[in-house]
Amino acid sequence: MRFFRKSIIFGLIIAAAILLIALYGALSFLRPEIPVLNYHQVNNNAYNALTLNAKEFDAQMNYLYKAGYNTISPGQLLGYLRNGEELPPNPILITFDDGYEDNYRVAYPILKKYNFSATIFLITDFVDANSRYLTWKQIKEMRANGFSFGSHTLSHAFLTEVADEELLAQLAKSREAIEWRLGEKVECLAYPGGKYDQRVINFAKRAGYKAAFTIN
Predict the structure, then answer these.
(1) Whole-model pTM?
(2) Which parts of the chain register pLDDT below 50?
(3) By the 8 A CB rule, do 92 and 111 touch?
(4) Torsion angle of alpha carbons 179, 185, 187, 193, nearest 10°?
(5) Spatial separation of the C-alpha atoms in residues 120 and 39, rounded to whole Å
């Protein structure tokens, strides 16, 4: 009798565990996956794997608009992942790496046309120093219109290939430059070339980042 009772209890425990696993799977299925799009240049001059022309970019944004997507910021994504904070329907994160000037001249008007925002990861040593890249004045205008900015390091160094001192400088000083110019906390980083390892992750945390993007 005791063995029979224990068997029933054991069976109920197994059944409860299976139910919990099934429930967790169902909730995971209901939790929306959030696409992150990665762009670089948008212009009608360059012809390479990192560049779209204006017509192509407009067509993609038009598709997202008609499909009912709503752009979010990295801050909203972090709030969702950390705390389950609510997101708009069909959330999507649009990002640009490097901070090319055509992001302002070409992509920015197209994004505004569809009431979209984007996040630009800046190579901070190139801002105001190279005509191919954004100026702080342009960056501040976009920020005032809902765009977000993160770090893409000081000079686009491949972080897995530099010594510790240089690694920390690339991470910390680029974040500090953006925070000083925009007067807001920078928590997100995009790894140059998508390259990272555990050492880079540890230094990114040490430099004050809460999240980092790659191209896996």
Answers:
(1) 0.85
(2) 1-29
(3) no
(4) -20
(5) 9
